[in-house]
Specification:
Shape of chain B: elongated
Strand order of the largest sheet of chain B: 2-3-8-5-7-6
Order of helices and strands of chain A: EEEHEEHEHHHEHEHEE
Strand content of chain B: 5-15%
CATH architecture of chain A: 3-Layer(aba) Sandwich
CATH class of chain A: Alpha Beta
Structural class of chain A: alpha/beta
Number of strands of chain A: 10
Oligomer: heterodimer
CATH superfamily of chain A: P-loop containing nucleotide triphosphate hydrolases
Structural class of chain B: alpha+beta
Helix content of chain B: 40-55%
Bound molecules: adenosine-5'-diphosphate, magnesium ion
Distance between the termini of chain A: 19 Å
């Protein structure tokens, strides 16, 4: 479903030219759970942002579900992102002014679901992640693990086919991190396609497949059978 | 989505209430100052009689000193003499015409000893005055043509609505009698009420711009000639360029100007004909030794006349410019505040983009928030405008009260201006916010 060929991303600043990604070719199939590992600065986040249509690329081609995304305008990309892709970030990135309910509501609003449908989905997700009692809490009133679970609930509320997680456990203690990983594994089992960026080999080992990035290049491709 | 955005805006504004207050203050102050000044300018400049302002012409004849104009560079005096008034009224060459002048008199009710006499503003005018100026009547009518019997006109009056309220408690007073007395002598004469006006307050009081034209209109109207024959006390401006003899007769035969003269001319032809008549009249007068200056007669319609008399004073226009600049400064401040507000939301913007918001929908969201600030600023601005006008009223006294009325137009305009200003001020910050690169935002986490 995700098909990248020869992707390059170059950042040109006044002083330096950084090849964040060079000639990246990669296919992710429906139902995969792929870890992207590599040292800091190797281009993992850049890859994830391109995959999630948040960022353009300079060379190569990218087909998402067979559709060439290069020709899409901002509205079309936003719509695709909204419908097909769920994001999870290292810093949780909940909106601090909004309570848990309203945070999970955000992607559903852009989807244009009616109120009843939104409410049903939000409650369903929060229940699934054991957050029903926190529905009116604000992010600052939650622990890191709870915040990340809200973020996952938010990413999943619109039923995306595709979950992109950037160091989802980077800000969590090991117990919470393990809990989040359990969740991701559960999602994978129920059919969600997941790409998870991490620099922690131990976490990467829990994903059935992984790719290794270094200096913007794929240096290893580990197709360990699940 | 509008309700969602309104709710988000309310949450965000409440969250940063200090910043919100500052922005509302900045816009409100700018609007308040600007609207106070605009209101005054607008009321000064508005056409007091829009349906007829292009058919009513003010007459100027240049009977002034051969050695210097009445007003530089070469303006004729702004009123006419008794002699010319008599000649123009008897010739009656216009469709309608009236001379008019102001006076004061002590008003009494002969049949009511308990009534406390008061000093009233009197206007002496001819019969055409009422139809010419579309003066509305509540009871009765004006008088019929008196042009040729000025000294012997019937002793009748028309009361303004307020005067009728004061004298007769608002009843139909047609047929009742009052006396008008000269404040400095002990004479007084009986007058019969033949008409009562409905509310009539042209602002500015265009029919007489020679004295404070934002003050209250006349309280009592009487046939023009009675000002003299009844020995009332004239109260308008009188200007002379050469000495006059003593006594009323000498004054009336002098070159002193004190009468405002209006004509109604319905089209270009009538206007051209009337101008020709004036020129011919003055030329004849020159043969008799009057009018030593070159021919310099003027016909100005209402708006030309308001302009000529500088009803909107240059200072007011300056002040308006300053007020507009003040608003601009306030808006620049608001732009700064909004920029910092929206740039402070970059991480939220990144998240919303990642969750599927297009640039357009973010733009919409933040413009709604800006409009909300604008609405708050508009309400505050309106309050300040009202306070501003009230305080000017306190400073300038009740003379200004006709001028400084906030009408509904102004209320709507103030709020609309505030919202438009806020959105105008919000466009650049919003645009900047929506250009924020979500990828870079999310990476920096
Ligand atoms: N917006 C940007 N402008 C300039 N350089 C960037 C930008 N984003 C990333 N880079 C550079 O690209 C490289 C890859 O960055 P990133 O994808 O964030 O790596 P990772 O997520 O693996 O740590 C780094 O050298 C980083 O400095
Ligand atoms: Mg990264």
């Amino acid at each position: 479903m995700l098909d990248m060929k020869g992707i390059a991303r170059i950042y040109q600043t006044d002083l330096v030219r950084t090849h964040a990604l060079r000639d990246l070719t990669l296919t992710v199939n429906e139902g995969d759970f792929t870890a992207v590992v590599g040292p800091s600065g190797s281009g993992k986040t850049t890859f994830l942002n391109i995959a999630g249509l948040l960022e353009d690329f300079d060379e190569g081609s990218y087909l998402l579900d067979g559709e060439n995304v290069a020709g899409l305008n901002d509205r079309q990309r936003s719509k695709l992102r909204n419908e097909k892709i769920g994001f999870i970030f290292q810093g949780f990135n909940l909106i601090p002014d909004l309570n848990v309910f309203d945070n999970v509501d955000v992607p559903l609003r852009y989807r244009g679901f009616p109120a009843a449908e939104r409410k049903r989905r939000i409650e369903e997700q929060l229940e699934r992640f054991g957050l029903t009692g926190r529905i009116r809490h604000f992010p600052s009133q939650l622990s890191g693990g709870q915040q990340q679970r809200v973020a996952i609930a938010r990413a999943l509320a619109g039923d995306p086919r595709f979950l992109l997680a950037d160091e989802p456990t980077g800000n969590l203690d090991s117990a919470s991190a393990s809990g989040v990983l359990d969740l991701l594994e559960g999602l994978h089992t129920s059919g969600t396609t997941i790409i998870m960026v991490t620099h922690d080999p131990a976490l990467a080992a829990r994903a059935p497949s992984s790719i290794h990035l270094q200096d913007g290049r794929v240096v290893g491709n580990d197709e360990a059978a699940a | 989505m509008i309700f969602y955005y309104l709710r988000l805006a309310a949450i965000s504004l409440r969250r940063n209430w200090g910043q919100t207050t500052l922005m509302i203050l900045a816009i409100g102050l700018g609007i308040g100052v600007c609207m106070s000044i605009v209101t005054i300018n607008y009321l000064m400049a508005k056409d007091p009689i829009p349906d007829k302002s292009s058919q009513l012409y003010y007459v100027q004849l240049d009977n002034w000193d051969p050695n210097r104009p009445a007003e530089s560079p070469n303006e004729p005096p702004d009123q006419i003499t008794w002699m010319d008034h008599q000649a123009l009224m008897s010739a009656a060459k216009a469709f309608r015409q009236t001379g008019n002048a102001s006076a004061t008199a002590i008003i009494r009710k002969p049949d009511d000893d308990n009534f406390r006499p008061f000093l009233a503003r009197i206007r002496g005018n001819h019969a055409d005055f009422f139809p010419m100026f579309d003066v509305p009547f509540l009871y009765g009518t004006g008088w019929t043509s008196d042009a040729h019997r000025d000294w012997g006109a019937d002793q009748v009056v028309v009361l303004s609505r307020e005067t009728n309220d004061r004298l007769f408690g608002g009843e139909d007073s047609v047929g009742r009698e009052i006396t008008l007395g000269n404040p400095t002598e002990f004479s007084s004469n009986l007058f019969r009420v033949i008409g009562v006006l409905d509310e009539w307050r042209p602002v500015p009081r265009f029919y007489d711009l020679t004295s404070n034209y934002f003050s209250d209109p006349a309280e009592i109207f009487i046939p023009f000639g009675l000002i003299l024959s009844q020995g009332l006390s004239r109260s308008g401006n009188t200007n002379c360029w050469k000495p006059t003899g003593d006594g009323l007769r000498a004054f009336l035969g002098s070159e002193c100007v004190w009468i405002q003269y209006w004509t109604e001319l319905r089209n270009h032809q009538e206007k051209a004909d009337y101008m020709a008549y004036l020129d011919q009249y003055v030329t004849e007068q020159k043969e008799g030794g009057r009018f030593p200056r070159p021919l310099n007669n003027r016909l100005s319609n209402v708006n030309e006349w308001l302009d000529h008399e500088n009803v909107v004073q240059p200072e007011a226009k300056m002040l308006l410019a300053v007020a507009v600049m003040f608003l601009v400064v306030c808006l620049l401040n608001t732009i700064g505040l909004l920029l910092s507000k929206f740039l402070g939301k970059s991480s939220e913007i990144g998240v919303r983009r990642a969750l599927g918001a297009s640039r357009g929908s973010l733009m919409y969201q933040y413009l709604v928030e800006t409009a909300m600030i604008g609405f708050g600023g508009g309400l505050l601005g309106l309050l300040l405008t009202w306070l501003g006008l009230e305080s000017m009223l306190a400073i300038f006294g009740s003379d200004a009260s006709n001028l400084m009325r906030l009408d509904l137009n102004m209320v709507v305009a103030a709020v609309a201006l505030a919202i438009a200003s806020a959105i105008g001020a919000g466009l650049y910050p919003t645009w900047r916010a929506c250009r924020i690169d979500p990828a870079a935002q999310l990476k920096s986490q």
